[in-house]
Design goal:
Helix content is 44%, strand content 12%. It is built from ten helices and six strands. The termini are far apart. 26% of the residues are buried.
């Protein structure tokens, strides 16, 4: 008889704790679900009196209902992020598996088609004249440049926002993406007028029908202490500063500015200069 009473007490205790956790799960948002799971994972001892059950129940409820300093923060940004993420195709959301796949696609397409099937990507806050280099895209034949950018728009924009958390991140959702010929960074740094940026469109007919393996994106990565490559351009994508030329035959000669030297040094870092000169020849 005593044994049956103990079993019933333990069963009642387990049901009471389980009902408490279920209520907490139902009432609380997903942000606090991990705390509920943590409380449940504590487990139950073999023997527990009704008083102990009530004490544990109160402890769990107090911890879950405790006011946090984060509760005072405005959740509007989180809501906007959730809406933005829900509108992005799953295969283009900014997560590791998608980034890795698109980078592998880029390498494969470039190896097959060379720089001609790639384009350099720049992102701009419309309120400034600074265009930030954020990476490169590649596409197979039959896919237009505008389609390739529109299909990967969310990934490119989010990558730019994370590269430049101060300048770009607050402007997510309203950024401009511009393209330049593939591997044209040096010409851009020298402000050569032959390089004109082209503004891309977020919505392009047929872009959503393109399979992700037909295009790729390789995002720019900063090394420790690197400031990032940027250029100043007009609204039509032309250089805003005079061309930098070491062998100018006409016009006024001038040494490159400190910013221009820094940009050139950033572009040359890690590159094989011998190979670059051979390509020019």
């Amino acid at each position: 008889m005593m044994k049956m009473l103990t079993v019933r007490t333990n069963l009642a205790s387990a049901l009471l704790i389980f009902s408490t956790i279920c209520c907490c799960c139902y009432d609380l948002s997903l942000k606090k679900f991990s705390l509920v799971a943590c409380a449940f994972s504590i487990g139950m001892p073999n023997k527990m009196s009704p008083i102990q059950v009530v004490a544990i129940k109160r402890s769990i409820l107090n911890k879950l209902s405790a006011k946090s300093k984060w509760d005072d923060l405005d959740d509007d940004d989180d809501d906007d992020d959730n809406i933005r993420i829900q509108q992005v195709p799953r295969d283009m959301r900014y997560v590791e598996c998608n980034l890795l796949r698109q980078n592998q696609n880029f390498v494969a397409i470039r190896d097959a088609g060379g720089a001609e099937v790639t384009n350099d990507m720049y992102v701009r806050d419309p309120e400034t004249d600074i265009f930030w280099f954020v990476g490169k895209v590649a596409r197979v034949s039959g896919v237009t440049l505008k389609q390739a950018i529109a299909r990967q728009w969310a990934m490119v924009e989010e990558h730019a926002a994370r590269l430049r958390p101060l300048e770009i991140y607050p402007k997510r959702g309203g950024l401009e993406i511009w393209s330049a010929p593939g591997d044209s960074e040096l010409d851009v740094a020298y402000n050569k007028p032959s390089i004109q940026f082209i503004k891309m469109d977020q919505n392009v007919e047929g872009a959503d029908k393109i399979k992700n393996l037909m295009l790729g994106f390789q995002g720019e990565l900063y090394e420790p202490g690197e400031d990032g490559f940027r250029t100043r351009r007009t609204n039509d994508g032309m250089p805003k500063l005079p061309e930098v030329s070491a062998e100018a035959e006409k016009g006024e000669k001038r040494p490159p500015t400190d910013d221009e030297i820094e940009e050139i040094a950033t572009l040359l870092k890690g590159k094989d200069l011998k190979t670059m000169f051979e390509e020019d020849e």
